Amino acid sequence: MTGPAVIGRQPVLITGGAGFIGSNIADRLASEGHPVHLFDALSRPGVERNLDWLKRRHGGKISFTRGDVRDEDGLAAAARGASAVFHMAAQVAVTTSMTDPREDFDINVRGTLHLLDALRLSGRRVPVIFASTNKVYGDLADIEFQLEGDRYEPTERCVREFGIAEARPLDFHTPYGCSKGAADQYVLDYARSFGLPTAVVRMSCIYGQRQMGTEDQGWVAHFLIRALEGEPITLYGDGCQVRDILDVRDAVDAYMAILGRIELIGGRAFNLGGGPANAVSLRQLIAHIGEVTGREPDLRFDDWRAGDQRYFVADTRVIRDTLGLGRARDWRTGVADLAAWLAEERSLDLTGAPERLRVPA
Questions:
Q1: Which member of 176, 186, 207, 255 is catalytic?
Q2: Are the C-beta atoms of residues 307 and 135 closer than 8 Å to each other?
Q3: In this predicted model, what pLDDT tens digit does every residue of 40-75 receive, in sequence order?
Q4: Collapsing DSSP states into helix, strand and coil, what is residue 252?
């Protein structure tokens, strides 16, 4: 539980609050009675629907400022009265960072520093929880993998059993990895240097309702959307790369638990993902999507992309033990739930799909 002692009566600020994870955090907070201030540039297609949904659902509990984290004064004004901050706003695509690394830096690094310094200069100890990424660990090229069926598996027993732990050395690859990694380190250092109660969440692949997936980001939803609409799906590489996928409802549980214990765990970074129990190759996911939609996906392949990891599974023991988190939802159930939500959201005719996915056209 977050609790009034942590949040108080002032609103919780969520940068990128109309986005996928931000809107789910906002919904949880507002449902618990807390005021929420969303700060979002609305630059990603479809996020306006998330904003409208939150306003309809929670009314006056939701306030909104259309703004960009590169606007130092605008962000400082939004942060001025915040009781806590979830910093979710970011440039989120590796491909975009390769095209325009300066913009990637300005949003991910400079925007984060704007926020941190606004809070530092306020003289208030405002909690900041930052959404980082598993990309801070690089491409894991030093780990040996072997191909087993349709998935890569590490040969090292400990990694195979538990995944990648927080003790793994940082190794930034691609401009996106550099910018998110630099922001990650600034957030941690502002706890050390200035006493801000901060925490970093290095996320693996999060999926779920309110995800407007694209090829570059939100790929679980993207695969489902393409399959539901009868469009081809392109896999980069051989499709045997493995990711641990986590339902956004479980991710929000973790974020809430971090906020509730921020005074005890401030200054720490946590890996967050589905863990070994929810580790799945892209080919396995595509096969399951065919089952839940009743349609065999049209699968195509292209070259590997820069910085792509053949395997990433988060070792979630530290975050689960520290916060007392329960078992994550099984990925098969979560993906089926997302398929049903996307079908309803897009008013798709699912004749031939399993009964649970059939919704009015």
A1: 176
A2: yes
A3: 999 988 899 999 999 999 999 999 999 999 999 999
A4: helix
Is 255 among the residues known to form the active site? Answer: no
- CATH number of the domain at 303, please: 3.40.50.720
DSSP code string of 127-184: -EEEEEEGGGGTT-TTS-EEEETTEEEESSHHHHHH-B-TTSPP---HHHHHHHHHHH
CB atoms within 10 A of CB 264: 9
Tokens of 122: 């306020």
Nearest alpha-carbon partner for 218 in 227, 230, 209:
209
| Residue 79 resides in a domain | no
What's the total number of domains in the chain? 1
- Could you give the CA distance from residue 331 to residue 328 in angstroms, rounded to a whole number? 9
Distance of CA 134 to the CA centre of its chain: 10
Residue 155 belongs to domain spanning:
90-357
- Which residues are paired to 243 by β-bridges? 280, 312
Burial of 318 (0-12, 13-18, 19+ CB in 10 A): middle
Buried b (16+ CB within 10 A) or exposed e, 292-310: bbebebebeeeeeeebbbb
Quote the DSSP letter at residue 86. Answer: E
> How confident is the model over 164-193, as pLDDT tens digits?
999 999 999 999 999 999 999 999 999 999
In a domain, 128, yes or no: yes
